[in-house]
Write a structure and sequence with these properties.
Blueprint (H helix, E strand, L loop, with lengths): L4 H15 L15 H13 L7 E14 L2 E8 L2 E8 H4 L1 H10 L5 E10 L5 E12 L8 E6 L2 E6 L4 H6 L1 H7 L1 H23 L3 E2 L5 E2 L11 E4 L4 E5 L4 H9 L4 E9 L11 E10 L3 H19 L4 E4 L2 E4 L5 E4 H9 L9 H10 L10 H13 L7 E7 L8 E2 L2 E12 L2 E8 L4 H14 L12 H8 L5 E7 H9 L20
Parallel strand pairs: 3-5, 8-12, 16-17
Antiparallel strand pairs: 1-2, 1-4, 2-3, 4-5, 6-7, 9-11, 10-11, 12-13, 13-21, 14-15, 17-19, 18-19, 19-20, 20-21
Helix pairs in contact: 6-7, 7-9, 7-15, 10-12, 11-12, 13-14
Length: 505
């Protein structure tokens, strides 16, 4: 490691501690309470009018040190909160006082034992009678600043540069309590999703991450190679085809929460690896799934936020059911004045778009033209929760066609805050129709087109045994967390987001 002068000075203190017979990285600690637990224990004893002292051993990172002659005030912080330490030379002795002042630094982890008391200002503190080093920090954390807001002490860290925060998430978490709260909220989101589905008798399962054939979504995969098997494998882009195999195997309700990987562009709402929830429900259709979705997400809001209204990107969002429902065809008529039902071919639709001054990519299929208009003219305007339903067949190869319109499928996407949140179908369970769609996709798209779905013969074989009518659903957990924590970029809700190498444009 290349150390600067301050780091060298701190590293030298490691040797000084060992020379004094003190191990700066001991095997274990003797903590009896978290900082918050210690405070709660003292308050409980106060309320009970107990005369017995509350003795604790607490530990955490040193966040402040204020020497005042023969006494020292310090604050330590752990994952639960902060507590003040009070050192007095009469109790701990001159040598230990000197040791603490000279060899302990901000950022070090330590433990301290003693009786709890209230200072004259009313702050619950540990009257320290012994202390130990738990971990000597060589690199100092960015300093933090405390401000009093509405009578509460609020900590503001000086580590605010997004590039540094994302690259050094460990430092970001250490000095930014608000960031820690985002990831606690994320964990609670996942917990609430599981609870809701478990209560409806869904079975949580795990499916392969390394797959011989990728599928279930429109995305370019990452490719890897198994040396012993001499076989190319793909990091999964979706759980869908494996989860639906399980319905063939008589699991009627299944779900998975896990990582997907897509070799696509990075943006405020895209990361190459991300967390997805998918569930599949036998004997259901997309309308059933719509109702389940809006109820599930209201439940998550109740559990995570304690309310169904919240602010995202300056707008108040209300997740209470029922959500607004907009048919895709009518949505485009209202937004751009084009009735897609009057344009059954890509050529006709492209000409209509041109007349309206809407550009289109040459060679696009009809479905991709519709999808492009949806993304530009509908999605950004769906601030309140909205289901957009009935999609083109050629961009939905795994969804069931509407009985009265073979070119339109029973599919919906859910939008909140101007971005797509979830995607769902009445799942196609006709083996022969599915096979013809795979073959049709192979003819309609170039080999490197992200919309191309490779033909999965084993999936067709599974379907040939019979798959019940099914409603399926997929949702980005990262995007849901963005909404509930009012973060406009996905990097804020992924602990270690993918970043370009330093120096790249």
């Amino acid at each position: 490691m290349q150390l600067n002068e301050l780091e060298k000075n701190r590293a030298d203190k490691i040797h000084q501690l060992r020379d004094a017979g003190i191990e700066p990285y001991p095997i274990k600690s003797h903590i009896t309470h978290t900082t918050q637990g210690a405070i709660e224990a003292f308050i409980k004893a106060e309320e009970a009018h107990s005369e017995d002292p509350v003795v604790v051993t607490v530990g955490g990172r040193i966040r402040a040190m204020r020497p005042m002659g023969k006494i020292i005030f310090a604050h330590i912080e752990d994952g639960s909160g902060r507590i003040q330490l009070f050192f007095r030379i009469n109790e701990i002795g001159k040598e230990k006082m000197k040791l603490f002042q000279e060899l302990f630094d901000l950022g070090d982890f330590m433990e301290a034992s003693g009786k709890l008391f209230r200072t004259r200002t009313g702050e619950i503190s540990v009257h320290v009678d012994s202390f130990e080093m738990l971990s000597k920090a060589i690199t100092p954390l960015p300093p933090a600043k405390d401000e009093v807001v509405d009578g509460e002490v609020v900590r503001h860290a000086t580590l605010s540069d997004p590039e540094t925060r994302f690259r050094q998430r460990y430092a970001d978490l250490a000095v930014n309590p608000g960031v820690r709260e985002v990831f606690r909220a994320r964990a609670n989101v996942v917990k609430a999703l599981r609870q809701y589905l478990d209560d409806l008798d869904f079975l949580e399962v795990e499916t392969p991450i390394l797959q011989p054939i990728y599928g279930g979504a429109a995305a370019r995969p990452f490719v890897t190679h198994h040396n012993q098997l001499k076989q190319d494998l793909y990091l999964r882009i979706s759980f869908e085809l494996y989860l639906k195999r399980l319905l063939v195997g008589m699991f009627d309700r299944v779900y998975e929460i896990g990582r997907d990987f897509r070799n696509e562009g990075v943006s405020f709402k895209h990361n190459p690896e991300f967390t997805q929830l998918e569930f599949y429900m036998a004997y259901a259709d997309y309308k059933t799934v719509m109702e389940l979705t809006e109820n599930m997400l209201a439940f998550v809001c109740d559990k995570v936020l304690g309310k169904r209204k919240f602010i995202f990107d300056g707008q108040e969002i209300d997740m209470s059911p029922p959500w607004k429902r907009v048919e895709l065809r009518q949505g485009l008529i209202d937004a751009v004045g084009i009735d897609i039902a009057e344009h059954p071919t890509a050529e006709s639709l492209a000409e209509a778009m041109k007349e309206k001054g809407i550009s289109s990519k040459p060679g696009s299929t009809r479905g991709k033209l519709i999808d492009a208009m949806l993304g530009d003219y509908l999605e950004p305007n769906f601030i309140q929760p909205t289901f957009l339903y009935n999609y083109p067949r050629d961009i939905s190869p795994l969804a069931k066609s509407k009985p009265d319109d073979p070119q339109t499928v029973e599919r919906f996407e859910g939008f909140v805050g101007g971005m797509e949140l979830c995607n769902a179908f009445s799942e196609l369970n006709d083996t022969l129709d599915q096979e013809s769609r795979f073959l049709e996709m192979g003819r309609a798209y170039d080999a490197d087109d992200e919309e191309l779905h490779p033909l999965d013969e084993d999936y067709l074989r599974a379907m040939s045994y019979g798959m019940p009518p099914t409603g399926g659903f997929g949702m980005g957990v990262d995007r849901l967390t963005m909404l509930l924590t009012n973060n406009r970029t996905i990097r804020e809700v992924i602990l270690f987001p993918h970043l370009r190498e330093r120096g790249e444009d």
